[in-house]
């Protein structure tokens, strides 16, 4: 199995609902350093997993929908705790939609799976892994 | 599959038995930067894998039993080579016990698995992965 | 010249005033990984720059006044752009006050200077350096 | 499942064939920071996955065949795009050959699998994973 | 003294002249992860060292003149060893020209100095520091 | 001013004397990731600060005198707290001796200064800086 990973980041505000979150129930924020990993069983005709330029570009577009925003005010997240692990899934699913629509190139339809990891600090990170 | 990872560290002394270890047969030491990864198939009612505060706290307690010690003198390791990979399992198994006892919260009983990685330097690390 | 550095972090929300900031004029947030560096010309009687436990503890207290907050609502920052470099100074000056008050130990009065670095992402960071 | 990873690096020149590569069709180069991960189900008689000295030494030998070279002129890569993911496989397969030949020790024959990751920058990396 | 740093990278081919360079006399290559640090004594009217968007953009333009190239064929480097430390100066001087021309904004004329660091691997890097 | 830095590491056991050290008074250990930075005002005839191969080799030799040892039993450290900052000086001074003896090459006699940084974990490090 092969994979390639590209890294980018977002800077957002949000708050959490539930006693388990303690002081993180207050409005605060985070830089999420985002790693998107694309997997496939065999390389394509160019000897690559996916065009790294397209992968970086599509990741930047998906992140652009979240970046520099207060997630508490985004309709997509109404009533939802935007935990690091939940956001990892949102980003992975949006990337998967773009793979299926052909935005990562025709060859990308041969991808087997996708993992998105969000680093919220030097001591904590979260991932969501799915098939394609 | 979702995961969250928390990072902490220990500073210990130890020595190894066996010619394969060369100069590491002498009493020496290591800083192990420890990453504990918790996995589950679906998020809990709070939209998280596990409470990150409880996870960090329980990891700190497990590491507190090893930190600032000479492992050669710990009864738990009598006659055992405390290699990086062997210590990864010790820490993973002790965390698993705490998950099963409820110390990471009732929701943590829904965890699927656990991986512990110990970084012994910038050029070497080891992991142990298990189910829960 | 000797130095020691300790690392911690905060997660805050804020927004900026001024066209130069573009989309960062919207309410967003950041994780700041904070490095506090303490310098002195000669080591103290214990052969150290400063007690690393006290240094870490005082840094944590200074950061605790900022952590999990919306800086736009903090009276201390009214009318001020809380840029990464400006926050580096705030933290450095608050640590300096604690050095001068004896909170880092009597020996810490021999410190020559202090630098605080805030990493806002994997591709940007800022520092403020001062004497003591 | 246990694993250990060792890190080393190479500095090579190469170019790519195919419009998808854009400016990377020109002769350029890369530092690849290379992580080789060895996996096994149970530890050996010394309580390790594999002798870390042998693992590092064999990785260095495999990398020595590529280091400080223009890959466009290497017969082994004639007509082949030496993408990061393709090179990950080359290195993994050459390490696997050495495991099978006994160069990592007799105990290494009990290894279950191998992953090689090449970091081409702070924002992109690729892996190849195989069984042994 | 305040500073901000932005990070980017280039991937180039080159070779060295001189026995001291050993195998690096062959055509090879490198990824240089490039950190550009801008320093000033007091913050500007926006409470910043320099507009981070302009700083990143100008660094990207300077690096664009070097990226994906064989430096041995660049007229600017004829007869010159393009060592990591020498390239750090080239990039610093080109950034300084842009500061002086106003490309980093009028406020950037108040900058006191500049440091450029090039990381050639996880175990080696080089810097050049200058005034402005 | 130019600089180059090379990285290596040691794994040692030791203990501290003095109440300020708390549990670190027990025999424990550390991995120190060691960065040695060499500075000079102008580059030498080869357009470098110092031969990176010689610098790495001499750093490895200096570290070899400390590696895989219990520093409490080393005559050189009798009655001395081998704090991270104190060890940074020991290593810097031993490297300076080698520079002066010509072990880093004749050109290295033109070096202006030296800094040694020891990282004891992901959240703490110490440096010693001196002239040559």
- If interface size is counted as residues with C-beta under 8 Å from the partner's C-beta, which chains form the largest one? A-C, 24 and 24 residues
* Mean pLDDT over the residues of chain A: 97
Number of helices of chain A: 2
Rg for CA atoms of chain A: 16 Å
CATH class of chain A: Alpha Beta
Could you explain how this protein is built, in words?
Chain A is of the alpha+beta class and 132 residues long. Chain A has a single domain, classed as 6-pyruvoyl tetrahydropterin synthase/QueD (Tetrahydropterin Synthase, Chain A). Chain A is built from 2 helices and 4 strands. The longest helix of chain A has 18 residues, at 84-101. Chain A is elongated and about 50 Å long. The mean pLDDT of chain A is 97. The interface between A and D is medium-sized, with 18 and 21 residues.
Give the topology, please.
The structure is a homohexamer of 132-residue chains.
Chain A: E1 2-14, E2 28-40, H1 52-64, H2 84-101, E3 113-121, E4 124-131
Antiparallel strand pairs in A: 1-2, 2-3, 3-4
Features:
33% strand; 4-stranded antiparallel sheet; 132 residues; Tetrahydropterin Synthase, Chain A; 2 helices; alpha+beta; homohexamer
